[in-house]
From TrEMBL:
The lineage of its organism: Bacteria, Pseudomonadati, Pseudomonadota, Alphaproteobacteria, Hyphomicrobiales. SUPFAM superfamilies: Acylphosphatase/BLUF domain-like. Residues 1-94 form the BLUF domain. GO terms for molecular function: blue light photoreceptor activity; FAD binding. This is BLUF domain-containing protein. Coiled coil: none annotated.
């Protein structure tokens, strides 16, 4: 299996980001589960950060498709690693936006909306996602909801 982390620049106006993210989330959640791909997508208002993990050919094909998507540009792969264990096994796709509630978490990882795409590091993106996940798990999502959204293709392994 491989894990790829990338950053890109959103091409959608700020006011439309949430609608866009919801649309991407809805498609990705289903499609990624079908392909045994897990990961997350973060939108900070200007930049996207995404990690995708799963079989090498599946992740590569998905990245090719995402790269063509006009809703973002300047996709920059920050890291590609061979993995034995998934870092985000629980989600075929989970997305977070930078909101008033999560502002502090983004700031703690030095990922602000004025960041230069070239200075983003994969390790920071992964650490940010782990913190957002912990916050989500602890505060925002009751256990029953987490269990019910577990993708079937992955849950049956
Ligand atoms: C930043 C970003 C991340 C995306 N992530 C995924 C993803 O993880 N899985 C996925 O199926 N589509 C993802 N998409 C959407 C794809 O680009 C594409 O629109 C979608 O898979 C539908 O493909 P189709 O038009 O070939 O049916 C993403 C799009 C963007 C802009």
């Amino acid at each position: 299996m491989i894990q790829v982390v990338y950053a890109s620049r959103s091409a959608v106006p700020l006011g439309d980001q949430l609608t866009m993210l919801s649309a991407i989330q809805a498609v990705s959640y289903r499609r990624n589960a079908e392909r045994s791909i897990t990961g997350f997508l973060i939108n900070d208002g200007q930049l996207f950060y995404q990690a995708l993990e799963g079989p090498g050919s599946g992740v590569a094909a998905l990245l090719d498709r995402i790269r063509q998507d006009p809703r973002h540009s300047d996709m920059r792969v920050l890291a590609e690693s061979s993995i034995q264990v998934r870092g985000f096994a629980e989600w075929s796709m989970v997305s977070w936006m930078r909101t008033a509630a999560t502002l502090g978490i983004f700031a703690r990882h030095g990922l602000s909306d004025r960041l230069d795409l070239r200075s983003v590091q994969a390790s920071r993106v992964l650490a940010l996602a782990r913190d957002l996940q912990a916050c989500e798990t602890a505060v925002r999502r009751p256990r029953s909801f987490r269990a019910s959204v577990k993708p079937r293709a992955l849950a049956t392994r």
